[in-house]
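The following record pairs a protein chain with its ligand, FE2/S2 (inorganic) cluster.
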Amino acid sequence: MKIFVTDQNGLKHELEAIAGWRVMEIIREHGLPIKAECGGSCACATCHVYVDEAWMNKIPHMREDEEEMLDEAFNHEDTSRLSCQIIMDEELDGLCVTLAENV
Ligand code: FES
């Protein structure tokens, strides 16, 4: 299983992904620049990513707390998500995201 992550310099990385892990944890484990300051508690927005359009309706909808956190996030877009709130599973094999500037 894999995910594709574009970093802040526009470089695309192919990362090995494990079902049950948060997308944020996968990105962090591979050493890409993501602060994820709150460790996945939906309380910091420093795991902000933009989800590739093609994946927007395949990932589970966000809960209210994620939406509220993102509303206050810098450079918030329609495709914004908190990567700590996306749990990897078979359906998401091949997921493409881009790291936001301030993560
Ligand atoms: S790691 Fe803090 S909101 Fe995702």
